[in-house]
């Protein structure tokens, strides 16, 4: 049976629900000590004094590490490249400077977690504070550095002329707040030295990145570092970069002479490990009476940090989604004294699509056009920026399928025109899109004498289903039943794979696994046809197929033998092969993106302004779906997060101090089961072979894209109130 596409339950599901899966903080090491991070309580200034004497004398305390006694790390040497400094976003206790509230300023290491926590409270810090730059509106703006593949300042056609000619114009400002990642598993690192070799058990989306960057920060050779991360309890982008605590754990372990475990508390997830930056996006859109877009101008300001830059590239969807006659996008950064922001699920697309897809909706009302019809009127048949074809695009079909399943044709267009009893009912929709990303990846496959196979790639399963889909890809390529294939990941001792970010794991690692397995199978076939004792002897390798653990003649499946038999007669050694896959020149020929359409029904209480979302229908075009079940979970997780983004999620910064006031899961609101209604998800059949040999684009991020706009558009339809500031809380509706 072909396994790719099947709704196989997670191969690691039982391990996870029985607690047998070992997450980063759960690796039992002998003599493990526990570390606790102490954070700054001012946003900018210097540590005038830090008194650690009392803490150091407390029971069980092994060491207190601050800028006064922390191991000295490599610093940038003028002109010298060989001693590379740590990545600029890290705070590694090398000086007394405070650059944001919540910055790591000390680490306490003790026999037990409680002793370390207790001692951390006994540390006395005095600051010499300086005025912090914490006013987004007043911040001096500057342009971010251009990134290859992600132009920020773009222009085509004459937007001024387009706006002047337009019969309808929209000019609106949309804002999105700071948001913080809250995976179930917080960041966690166990660091263990054996001589000059370091092992890190780390909750990360990028084991090879942690290996390279921790080595760079510590000034040791990358070969001396091994990073292990077999299970990750959610990443969402915050585990894509390596943050300070990883290196601090290694420094602490060296200081204590013991393995050290450092787990961030929930509250510590709200400053030193990234956030989605807040954005302010202005849209100016002009259209003619028929609804053709003549001009689109998208100006974005996102916040960044003093310490290091991060840009939320909100114009990514704007640049490719509609065939507007002219378009201009700009991006600026407002620098604040806060922790460095970072990638959060669909960085740029999630926040950018909120503004774009609301602006298009506003234009639809201005034109008295159906929002779907307006989008179809401006459907981009090819990439409107690069003027090259899409590798595959079925967005028209997405609109059609989702609209039909939702019942969109029964919508009455006027705001406040639909009700269920007293409740205001609103129907809104939006487009989703996310780029098809891919990076080089390697894998290894080995068929054992007992007819089972081991397949490895140094990738990650951040809850996405990598174990499962790679087992399926491997089983098909090897011709083995699923249960005979064991796929392993999460160790830098394995062949290198890229960061599990940008929705690229399936698309990058899948082809490498496919190639390794195909190569191992081909080796086995070559052994069989060359073996006089094999029933396949003398046949051409191309006449032989592998399926169900057997090699058989294609033309005559009766003729064949078990794979194990071939190995047994040929030295009894496992047959292994490497696989290596990387993107080629296809990006120059094709514009590669996934697409989708999401339709939302909201119920708004006319007196209280509370918004409920009883149902959502969405349809996606993501190329080949490797596993119908894990794919659905990815889409659904993204959609649910989109609901949170629309209605609840916001880091309430206290801008006097640059500190999150709701840094816990009681006050930082995300949707729970009771907030989520029916979600109908369809993934169209597809096979984007221009992109890779599996035809599969990533699906980790597209689910969140467009959802906030669809909700906002539905809220407008229900209430006649256009809320352009997320989240849409009840105070904005009454
Ligand atoms: Mo994703 S935000 O690129 O982990």
Automatic annotation (TrEMBL):
Compositionally biased region (Basic and acidic residues): 73-84
Domain of life: Bacteria
SMART domains the UniProt entry points to: Ald_Xan_dh_C
Residues covered by the Aldehyde oxidase/xanthine dehydrogenase a/b hammerhead domain: 18-131
Segments for region (Disordered): 70-91
GO MF assignments: iron ion binding; oxidoreductase activity
Protein name as catalogued: Molybdopterin-dependent oxidoreductase
């Amino acid at each position: 049976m072909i396994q790719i596409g099947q709704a196989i339950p997670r191969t690691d599901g039982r391990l996870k629900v029985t607690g047998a899966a070992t997450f980063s903080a759960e690796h039992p090491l002998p003599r493990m000590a526990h570390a606790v991070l102490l954070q700054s309580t001012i946003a900018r200034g210097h540590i005038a004094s830090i008194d650690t004497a009392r803490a150091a004398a407390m029971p069980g305390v092994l060491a207190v590490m601050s800028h006064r006694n922390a191991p000295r790390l490599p610093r940038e040497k003028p002109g010298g490249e060989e001693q590379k400094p740590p990545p600029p976003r890290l705070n590694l206790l090398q000086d007394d400077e405070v650059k944001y509230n919540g910055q790591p300023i000390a680490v306490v290491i003790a026999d037990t977690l409680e002793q370390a926590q207790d001692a951390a409270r006994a540390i006395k810090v005095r600051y010499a504070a300086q005025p912090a730059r914490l006013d987004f509106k007043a911040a001096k703006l500057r342009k971010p550095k251009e990134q290859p593949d992600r132009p920020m300042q773009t222009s085509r056609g004459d937007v001024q002329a387009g706006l002047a000619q337009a019969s309808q114009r929209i000019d609106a400002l949309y804002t999105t707040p700071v948001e913080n990642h809250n995976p179930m598993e917080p960041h966690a690192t166990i660091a263990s030295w054996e001589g000059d070799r370091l092992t890190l058990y780390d909750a990360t989306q990028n084991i090879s990145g942690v290996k390279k960057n921790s080595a760079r920060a510590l000034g040791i050779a990358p070969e001396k570092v091994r990073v292990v991360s077999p299970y990750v309890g959610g990443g969402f982008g915050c585990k894509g970069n390596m943050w300070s605590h990883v290196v601090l754990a290694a420094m602490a372990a060296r200081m204590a002479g013991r393995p050290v475990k450092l787990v961030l508390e929930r509250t510590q997830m709200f400053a030193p490990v990234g956030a989605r930056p807040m954005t302010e996006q202005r849209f100016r859109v002009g259209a003619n009476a028929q609804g053709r877009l003549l001009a689109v101008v998208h100006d974005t300001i996102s916040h960044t940090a003093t310490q290091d830059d991060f840009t939320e590239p909100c114009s990514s969807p704007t640049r490719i989604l509609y065939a507007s006659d002219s378009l201009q996008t700009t991006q600026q950064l407002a620098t604040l004294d806060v922790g460095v922001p970072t990638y959060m699920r669909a960085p740029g697309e999630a926040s950018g699509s909120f503004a774009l897809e609301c602006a298009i909706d506003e234009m639809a009302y201005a034109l008295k056009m159906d929002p779907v019809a307006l989008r179809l009127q401006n459907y981009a048949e090819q990439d409107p920026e690069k003027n090259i074809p899409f590798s595959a695009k079925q967005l028209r079909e997405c609109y059609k399928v989702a609209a039909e399943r939702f019942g969109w044709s029964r919508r009455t267009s006027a705001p406040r025109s639909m009700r269920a009893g007293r409740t205001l009912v609103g129907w809104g929709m939006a487009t989703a899109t996310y780029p098809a990303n891919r990076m080089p990846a390697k894998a290894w496959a080995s068929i054992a004498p007992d007819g089972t196979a081991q397949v490895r790639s140094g990738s990650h399963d951040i809850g996405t289903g990598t174990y499962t889909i790679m087992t399926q890809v491997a089983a098909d390529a090897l011709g083995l039943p699923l249960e005979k294939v064991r796929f392993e990941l999460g160790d830098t001792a394995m062949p290198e794979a890229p960061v599990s970010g940008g929705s690229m794991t399936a698309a990058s690692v899948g082809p490498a696994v496919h190639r390794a397995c195909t190569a191992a199978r081909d080796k086995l076939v070559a052994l069989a046809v060359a073996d006089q004792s094999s029933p396949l002897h003398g046949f051409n390798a191309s006449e032989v197929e592998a399926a169900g653990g057997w090699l058989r003649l294609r033309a005559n499946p009766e003729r064949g033998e078990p794979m194990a038999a071939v190995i047994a007669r040929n030295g009894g050694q496992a047959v292994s092969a490497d696989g290596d896959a990387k993107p080629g020149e296809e990006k120059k020929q094709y514009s590669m993106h996934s697409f989708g359409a999401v339709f939302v029904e909201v119920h708004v209480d006319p007196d209280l302004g509370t918004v409920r979302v009883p149902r959502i229908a969405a349809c996606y075009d993501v190329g080949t779906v490797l596993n119908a079940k894990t794919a659905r979970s990815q889409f659904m997780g993204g959609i649910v997060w989109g609901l949170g983004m629309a209605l609840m999620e916001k880091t309430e910064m206290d801008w006097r101090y640059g500190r999150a006031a709701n840094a816990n899961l009681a006050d930082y609101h995300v949707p729970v089961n009771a907030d989520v209604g029916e979600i109908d998800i369809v993934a169209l059949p597809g096979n984007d072979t221009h992109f890779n040999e599996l035809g599969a684009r990533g699906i980790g991020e597209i689910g969140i894209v467009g959802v906030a706009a669809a909700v906002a558009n539905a809220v407008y339809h229900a209430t006649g109130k256009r809320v352009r500031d997320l989240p849409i809380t009840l105070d904005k509706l009454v």
